[in-house]
Specification:
Layout (H helix, E strand, L loop, with lengths): L3 E5 L6 H13 L3 E6 L5 E3 L5 E3 L2 E2 L10 E4 L4 H6 L5 H11 L4 E4 L3 H5 L8 E2 L3 H9 L3 E2 L4 E4 L2 E4 L5 H12 L2
Parallel strand pairs: 1-2, 1-6, 2-5, 6-7, 7-11, 8-9
Antiparallel strand pairs: 3-4, 10-11
Helix pairs in contact: 1-6
InterPro entries: C56_PfpI-like, Class_I_gatase-like, DJ-1/PfpI
Pfam families: DJ-1_PfpI
Keywords: Glutamine amidotransferase, Transferase
């Protein structure tokens, strides 16, 4: 059975932080599914990359996925603004059930809403690190950090390391 990764996405995502990991996963034979506010909604990245939501967050069941990818940009802030907290709840399934969760740049912001970062080691773009620390995480400045099932990276410069580790997490 092939593996499947949910990608939670909103407008203003960092284009390369979607396209590069998505391509790495698909090249490894892993299916990717974009989850967002509304099915068939087009979301647009900061630099014009377009993606279509395949499954609405209301219909998405985290147990249907073998991993979660959270690209950065301004999208994580939009996702956290969901009045019902659905994205944090969705991500919490992965953090609490030892299912791989991958977040780059601003992506780890969504993981804050899981309330599962206490004692975990993560990295992120500089202006998110204090928020992670306040959520109880041990924050380091490294290109990629693997803490059990959570893989985090800082910026697009880290994509080679990030992509290698996310694929590795999903290998049998």
């Amino acid at each position: 059975m092939s593996k499947k990764v949910a990608i939670i996405l909103a407008d203003e995502f960092e284009d390369i932080e979607l396209t590069s990991p998505k391509e790495a996963l698909e090249n490894a034979g892993i299916e990717t599914v974009i989850v967002g506010d509304n099915e068939n909604q087009e979301v647009v990245g900061k630099h014009g990359e377009k993606a279509t939501v395949q499954v609405s967050i209301a219909d998405a069941k985290p147990e249907d996925y073998d991993g979660l990818l959270i690209p950065g940009g301004f999208a994580p802030d939009h996702l956290r603004g969901d009045a019902e907290g659905r994205y944090g709840t969705f991500a919490k399934y992965f953090t609490t059930n030892d299912v791989p969760a991958f977040a780059i740049c601003h992506g780890p912001q969504v993981l804050i809403d899981t309330d599962d970062l206490n004692g975990r080691t993560l990295t992120a773009v500089l202006n998110v690190r204090k928020d992670l620390s306040n959520a109880g995480a041990h924050v380091v400045d490294e290109s990629v950090v693997v803490d059990n099932n959570i893989v985090t990276s800082r910026t697009p410069d880290d994509l080679d390391d990030f992509n290698r580790e996310i694929v590795k997490q999903l290998e049998d």
